[in-house]
Amino acid sequence: MRKTVVAGLIVLMASASAFASRKDEITLVMVPREDNVVRVGLDLANRYPTLLVSYKVNGGVASLHGWTGKEWVNIAVDAFKAGDFFRTGPDSALIIDEDNALADSLLPAEDWCPAVYKITTTETRPLLHLTGQYYDFGYKDWKWFCENYKMSMEAINPEGLNVAWYHKRFSDNLKNKPVAADDLKFWMAVRHPLPAVTEAVVENERAAETNSVESAVQPEMETPEDAMLMNPLTNEVPEAVVVGSDKVEDLKKDAGEARDDR
C-alpha cells in the first residue's frame, strides 16, 4: 500500500513538474455536469488557459458542452473525438470522473492531447487539493480558493505547497507537515508521456550499470616500469625517472663519456 501511495505521489508531482507553470500551456478540463464540480472548472478557467468541457452520460449516451468564456455551447461527440472543437489544442487533459462514467472512447486522443490524468472524486476538498497539486498553485491561488470555498489552507493544501514560512503562524512552522496521502487514491495517470530528458537519464543509468559491471572485472596490474613511462597529466614521457642506487655510477660514467665526446 505504501509503495502504491509513493508511486502515485511521484506521478502526480512529475505531471506537475513537467509543466512548471500551467499559465504557459492549455489544459483540457472535463467535468461532470454537477454544480460543485462545474464551479471548480469555471474557477480554473478564469485563472489558467483552459478548454472547459462539461459532460453528462445518460444510458451510455454522452452529451458534451464547451465553455466559450460567456456561454455553454454544444460539442458533437464526433467532433470531440477528432479534436475539431478548438482553435488551439491542449497540452494535457484533467478529467474529473468519479464513477468511471466516461467511456474510454471519449478520452482525448493521443494525437491531439499527449497527456491525460484523472481525478476520481467530486468531493470538493480533495478535488481542490489534487487540482492545486496538478496546477502547482502559487500562494495567491491557494489563498483565493481557501477564501472562496471557505476552507482552511491545511485542508486543501496540507503539504504547504508554495506557501512560504512567513505566510504561516509561528506554531504552524513547528508542526510536522501532514501529507494527505489518502487523497492520492483519487489520482490516476491515464497517459503520462515521459519527457525527453528522461530518455537521457535512462541512457545514463544504463551506461552506469555497464560501467559497474566492467569495473567488477579486475584489470591486469601494471608494472612499476609501465607506470613510470606515462605521465598521467600530459600523456608524455616524464622528464626524469627515479632509478636505483646500483645504476647511479653507470649514469655518471655515461654522462662523463658524453662530455668527452663534445
Overall SS class: alpha/beta
Task: Give the number of helices.
Answer: 10
Helix content range: 40-55%
Q: What is the domain total for the residues?
A: 1
Strand content: 15-25%
Which blocks of ≥5 consecutive residues have pLDDT under 50? 1-20, 197-201, 221-240
How many strands appear in the DSSP assignment?
7
Largest sheet: 7 strands, mixed
Gyration radius, to the nearest Å?
32 Å
* Helix and strand element order: HEHEEEHEEHHHHEHHH
Oligomer: single chain
Keywords: Signal
Signal peptide: 1-20
Report what the structure shows.
Keywords: Signal. The protein is of the alpha/beta class. It has one domain. Helix content is 42%, strand content 16%. The chain is built from ten helices and seven strands. It has a seven-stranded mixed sheet with strand order 4-3-2-1-5-6-7. A hairpin with a 2-residue loop joins strand 2 and strand 3. The radius of gyration is 32 Å and the shape is elongated. The N and C termini lie far apart (88 Å). The N terminus is likely disordered.
Q: Which features would summarize this protein structure in a list?
A:
262 residues, 7 strands, alpha/beta, disordered N terminus, 10 helices, seven-stranded mixed sheet, elongated
List the helices and strands and how they pair.
Elements lengths: L1 H17 L8 E6 L2 H13 L2 E9 L2 E7 L4 E4 L1 H6 L9 E5 L18 E5 L4 H12 L3 H11 L3 H4 L13 H5 L12 E5 L4 H21 L7 H6 L18 H14 L1
Parallel strand pairs: 1-2, 1-5, 5-6
Antiparallel strand pairs: 2-3, 3-4, 6-7
